[in-house]
Each structure stands twice: as C-alpha cells, then as structure tokens.
Amino acid sequence: MMAVAVSTESPFHGPKHPRTSRDATIEALRFVVRCDPPLPIRRGILLADAVHHRFARALARAGGGTDETVVLGRQGAATDHQHAHWVPLAGPDGAISDLLIWVPARLTTAEVAAVLADTTWPVAVGTGSSGTDPQEAGGAVGGPPEVRLLLHSAGPADMVTPLLCGPATVWQTATPYLPVRHRKARHSVETFLAEDISHACAYRGLPAPTAVTRVHPGAGLLDGWAAGFRRYRIQEQSDRQRVGLGLRLVFARPVTGPVLLGRLAHFGFGVFLPTG
User: What are 132-182's pLDDT values in tens digits?
Assistant: First the structure.
C-alpha cells in the first residue's frame, strides 16, 4: 500500500526544515517485520540500531542523490531532530510487528531506493559488550535471527502511521521515556520530570504539557515496566543507570505527532501514543 494523501499542518506540529534543491518528498517508510523467533518490543533498540547501521552502509554505497550526513544526523543537534528515527512498533502480543523510518527532513527518491535495495539480513541482536545473550534474540539459540522487512507504505507520516499522529491533548508512552538531564538532589521527582519533559518538548517544537503523571509509579526514576527494556545500543556498554519511565502528558490544546521525546528517541524510546 502506498500512502499518497497530503498531510495537514497542526498549530503545534514540530518545526519543518525541508531540504532545497533536492527531490526530497518521502517523510516516512513503514515495514512489516518478519522474524523467527519474534523480537519483543523490549529489545526493539537492537533492531532499530541494526537497521540504522544497514541504512548507513546503503547510503554510502548509493552515492549520488543521497546525503547521509543529513539523513543520519551526523551533525548532531544542528539537524534539529530532522534526521531519521528508527521506531519499532509492537503488536498486541508485545512482539515487534512493524518498523517505522520517520525522517522529518524527508527522503529523496535515491535514498528510498537505497534503503529498499536490501531489506533482508541477519540482525546481530546479541552483539555488544555483554556478548551473546539468548534473551536479546527473543529466545533464539545458535546465532542471530534473520529479519525480513516488507514495505507496507511510504508517504506523509500521518498516512503511513496514523496511530502515532493524533492530534490529541493526552499522550501516553508506548516505550519508556528516558530523561535527557540528570536529576539534582534538591529537585523532587515530579519537579524534575516536569522540567525535563518541558525541555524535551521545546527541543521538538512542542508546547510544554500542563500535566505530567507517571503511569507506573515506583521508587526513583526507573519504574518496573521500563526496567524490562534494554536501554542501550548494540555497541554501548551496558548502562543499567539509564533510567526510564512510563508517562502520561496532557497539553492545553491538541498536538500532532509523531511525539518522540527523550534520550534514544531516534531509536524507538520515548514513543507516545495519542489517548485522548
């Protein structure tokens, strides 16, 4: 299915920085994920990171008509979060059913062709500093599973992934929110979260929410639900101190998504769903 309808702008949609003198037209690609055994969403960062690296190599090989610096965000904060986001999406059973590649700066036809050139490969979901862990592969033994990505749709984000777009005034985490800053001892958890979320929203061109509440309240900044998610990339050291939470945000007026906030938001964390 190819989405072709034109999306409408929301008063609170994040800033857009369309690229000039380039045929950059595709904002999002959505793939159906085929993997045996299935990958649980709590290990989604492994798939997101593996696809990111695969896409980087594809762009490097493609050459003309592609801009890996802009697409992959190698200019850091200077890209204003307009570079690619790799977002695993879960089905009702908690396993990854789809993968969204969302690029607010949009992809050229050459870049789309590069990513579509090879969508089947073994994903090394057990690599990294801690070695192979069968749990990271959803229970696989004897090597990483083969992941196949089947193109589902391409086009504007609100057509490709309407579930993530709203608009809505209430948004709730589908994957843990990882705070951007460190909490100071003098700040309560509530004060810290309100300030951190407001900062993250402003960075994305969104208004500050009028209310921030925890969905899974617990001691400190790491709730039990978030603790079950791997919170570091393939080549990172195991960071058990990277905290995460389930949150509900309320805005004064409807905002349009995708709403992706916090650390590792470009790799599937801090994904918020509209709920009201």
Answer: 343 344 333 344 567 888 899 999 999 999 999 999 999 999 999 999 877
Average pLDDT over residues 215-219: 80
The reply to whether 11 falls in a domain is no
Of 138, 162, 186, the residue at which a domain comes to its end is 162
In a domain, 106, yes or no: yes
Three-state DSSP at 270 gives coil
The last residue of one of the domains, among 110, 140, 162, is 162
Would residue 18 count as lying in a domain?
A: no
Give residue for tokens 């610096």: 69
Q: Between the CA of residue 85 and those of 69, 75, 186, what are the distances in Å? A: 14, 15, 34
Rounded Cα–Cα distance for residues 64 and 68 (Å): 11
What distance in Å separates the CA atoms of residue 160 and residue 102, rounded to the nearest whole number?
10
CA atoms within 13 A on the CB side of 159: 17
Q: Check residues 223 and 220 and name the one with the higher pLDDT.
A: 223
Split into its structural domains, the chain has a count of 2
**Strand, helix or coil for residue 253:** strand
> How far apart are the C-alpha atoms of 49 and 47, rounded to whole Å?
5
DSSP string, 3-40: --PPPPPPTTPPP--PPSSS-EEEEEEEEEEEESSPPB
